[in-house]
């Protein structure tokens, strides 16, 4: 159990530009697929969110045109973004064209990504100034996290397996205003590899986890319990529409319910610009 209990309150949907995270805590908002925005008092962080071009033909949710425009121009809900994290190079998490445009339009924003993603970004011909704001990270499988400080945001990068033959995938634990958020990227890791990566009862206040990991899988559930102490689970990476395989769960909405029922302390942060605030008492 965590030493400090989290208070989680639902933030009503509406005009996000008029809301302030401030004393309320860290505001977590879903963008699309595995994309999220975490906003603190002074800074905001994007996880796998900056996507302009879809190469998967609509198989994964994309942000709407209005949200993309606000994100690219650093306005509205995205006014305080100073850092953007990329877990891996797949297009449902990373778009080099959109990333370069975001870098160009937001001179104070910095990026963290694995080298494979950076190579794709370089193919878009960024300037030397734009490259200087991109930090590449790839911890060894057995080295534990690589930690960097970006203003008031602490970022710990862990090597988390995407599966055999998969791309370089980074799991990030971000500490923002005392709230620790972990985004796994696409995880297919087993218990031993997570332990080797340095994840041993690692304390996490808000866990952003793909819905399929641990779904009716005892070994993966054991891996989760061994790797992390989780305050609140936020399942992510749901498909944008009903799919045939979901019938075994009773359809799309029942699948979501089933996933959340697996985690008694889970919170539903799903849907474009759906938000919830997390903070410590006192």
Task: Compile the SSE list and pairings.
Elements lengths: L6 E5 L14 E7 L2 E5 L4 E4 L17 H9 L7 E5 L10 H10 L4 E4 L1 H8 L5 H5 L1 E3 L9 E5 L2 E7 L10 E7 L2 E5 L7 H6 L5 E9 L7 H10 E9 L15 H11 L12 E5 L3
Parallel strand pairs: 4-5, 5-6, 6-7, 11-12, 12-13
Antiparallel strand pairs: 1-14, 2-3, 2-14, 3-4, 8-9, 9-10, 10-11
Helix pairs in contact: 2-3
Please characterize this protein's 3D structure.
The radius of gyration is 18 Å and the shape is globular. It starts with 6 loop residues before the first strand and ends with a strand. The longest helix is centred in the last third of the chain and has 11 residues, at 252-262. Helix 2 packs across helix 3. By secondary structure, it is of the alpha/beta class. The chain has helices spanning 65-73, 96-105, 115-122, 128-132, 191-196, 218-227, 252-262, and strands spanning 7-11, 26-32, 35-39, 44-47, 81-85, 110-113, 134-136, 146-150, 153-159, 170-176, 179-183, 202-210, 228-236, 275-279. The chain contains seven helices and 14 strands. It has an eight-stranded mixed β-sheet with strand order 1-14-2-3-4-5-6-7. Strands 8-9-10-11-12-13 form a six-stranded mixed β-sheet.
């Amino acid at each position: 159990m965590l030493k400090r209990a989290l208070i989680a309150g639902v933030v009503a949907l509406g005009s996000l530009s008029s809301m302030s995270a401030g004393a309320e805590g860290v505001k977590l908002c879903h963008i699309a697929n595995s994309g999220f925005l975490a906003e603190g008092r002074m800074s905001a962080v994007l996880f796998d969110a900056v996507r302009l071009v879809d190469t998967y033909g609509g198989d994964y949710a994309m942000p709407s045109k209005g949200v993309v425009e606000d994100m690219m121009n650093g306005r509205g809900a995205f006014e305080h973004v100073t850092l953007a994290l990329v877990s891996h190079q797949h297009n449902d998490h990373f778009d080099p064209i959109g990333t370069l445009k975001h870098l160009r339009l937001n001179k104070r924003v910095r990026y963290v990504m694995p080298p494979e993603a950076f190579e794709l970004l370089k193919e878009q011909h960024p300037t030397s100034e734009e490259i200087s704001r991109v930090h590449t990270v790839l911890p060894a499988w057995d080295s534990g996290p690589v930690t960097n400080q970006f203003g008031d945001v602490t970022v710990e990068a862990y090597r988390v397996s995407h599966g055999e033959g998969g791309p370089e995938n980074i799991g990030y634990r971000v500490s923002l205003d005392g709230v620790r958020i972990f985004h796994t990227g696409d995880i297919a890791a087993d218990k031993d590899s997570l332990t080797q990566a340095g994840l041993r009862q690692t304390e996490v206040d808000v866990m952003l986890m793909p819905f399929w990991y641990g779904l009716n899988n005892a070994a993966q559930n054991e891996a989760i319990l061994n790797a992390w102490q989780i305050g609140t689970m936020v399942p992510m990476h749901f498909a944008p529409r009903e799919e045939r395989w979901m019938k075994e769960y009773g359809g799309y909405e029942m699948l979501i319910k089933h996933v959340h029922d697996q985690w008694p302390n889970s919170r539903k942060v799903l849907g474009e610009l759906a938000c919830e605030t997390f903070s410590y008492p006192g």
